[in-house]
Amino acid sequence: MPCRIRVRVASVRSVRDPEGHEGVAVEFVEVRERPPPAVFMSPTGVPREVGEVVSQITRSIQSVMPIPKQYELKKLVVIFTAEELEAFGLKPYPNQVYEVEISKGSLRFRAV
Length: 112
Hints:
Elements lengths: L2 E14 L5 E12 L14 H17 L5 E11 L1 H7 L8 E7 L2 E6 L1
Antiparallel strand pairs: 1-2, 1-4, 2-3, 4-5
């Protein structure tokens, strides 16, 4: 059964291999939704006033430094020669989104 992953091109840069051949390194990241923030409960032995102060401090910190709703997970870095990139049919540019299908040892890229 194939597995599908939605990835975004994080960077495209020129590289050289140890033999001096020019190539292109393409870095793909998976963008995931951040799970909802956990609700912190004060232990039963802590006075109610202390729990309220801790709760207020937590809320004020979150308002000053908001937590992003998404995060990126580095997924794949592929280094192509110009010929390989053309044969593969990719013309990647930063922020382009692809769906990668992984099936029986092969990768298929489809622009979204």
